[in-house]
Amino acid sequence: MRITNVDVFVAGLSRTPGGGPNCPVVKITTDEPGLVGWGNGALSGGEQAVATLIEQHLAPRLIGADPDRVEDIWQMFQRSTYWRAGRVLAGATAAIDIALWDIKGKRAGLPLYSLLGGKCREKLLSYAHASGSTIEETVASVLANRERGYRAIRAQVATPGYESGSYGAGGARRAGGGRGQGSRPADADEHPARQVRTWEPTPYLRTAPALFERLRAEVGDTVELLHDVHDRLTPIQASQLARELEPYHLFFLEDPIPVENKDGLRVLREHTTTPIAIGERYNSKYDCLPAITGQLIDYVRNGMSKSGGLTELRKIAALAEPFQVKTAFQGPVDIGPLAFAATVHLDLAIPNFGIQEDPHFSGEVQEVFQGLPQWADGYYTASERPGLGVEVDEALLRERPYHPFFFPVIRREDGTLQDP
Ligand code: MG
Prior knowledge:
420 residues; alpha/beta; Enolase-like, domain 1; 10-stranded mixed beta sheet; 13 helices; 19 strands; 18% strand; globular; binds magnesium ion
């Protein structure tokens, strides 16, 4: 069996310009009639770079290759491209790797979880996102998600004086609005690439514990609660926050400090028993290894489409297992539908699964990618069909519009840059 063709698509996950990221999708065709594999990579804000790398440099190496040799092809892309690693290559490799695993499963007539060793559990605990511009709004959002059936919920609230964001450590205010002038330059306009938002750590550090005090009072122990700091704190600030959150028994505190500061996790560990999750900005097993072997985290959060695909993520899970580090593989909407399906298959088959973030794909996206993992009563299950179990409507996929996506620039009141 040989690979005969590689098609690359960049599909908008939202129809609204600026409304969401895009998904680099790969279709690998073989010389076996009807046998194709699908996969996706990811790099929000750099999706076209991933697609171009695949089209110009990786696809030519695939033509004529045996699609059964998944590990060897992965090694070839990581090592024979000389420069190794990096987020663009990790995203491009992921798309191809997932498609090759899809082919392997279809050829065997087995769902991917079966090829990975079979189920270790029947269903996967998932968590929803709840947010609000006030504590009361976030409480209402948590209650609504609990009503829908979620048993674990990530809660974020805007810092008072700063507008709510759809992600991030409690929202940020558009610079130039509200109190102060922020850091908005005089000639800035509303183009998303040039929008500046403002945020301050001190009021955030006062607000987050107040949110969880209120939430525990409201929901008791009926749901697990999680919180994402988005890399915005110093180790000692994160230590203060994690200690103050201890009475509210978080499932985990996510990305408390910049991911590059691996020694900073040691400071955090010395000060708190709040479980720590990190890894969505890692893109290889090498990135997360010191945090795992140092017992500096409790949950590893690499993303399937951002860390080299199934071949790399299953190794990360295996590396974490003897250290009792569990998985919380990243799963926001930009993970992409095919990578999410692959993640669910892996989650089912590993002993150290912890929890799964819910991307909550829109109905429109689910029409393009049919047979995505099913959610019910707080848990995900995988398709029982061979491979990923996802049928892609290629005509609908081609209609998905690409819109450039930009993360906001976030600065402090004095103009200092903050992580988004
Ligand atoms: Mg996060």
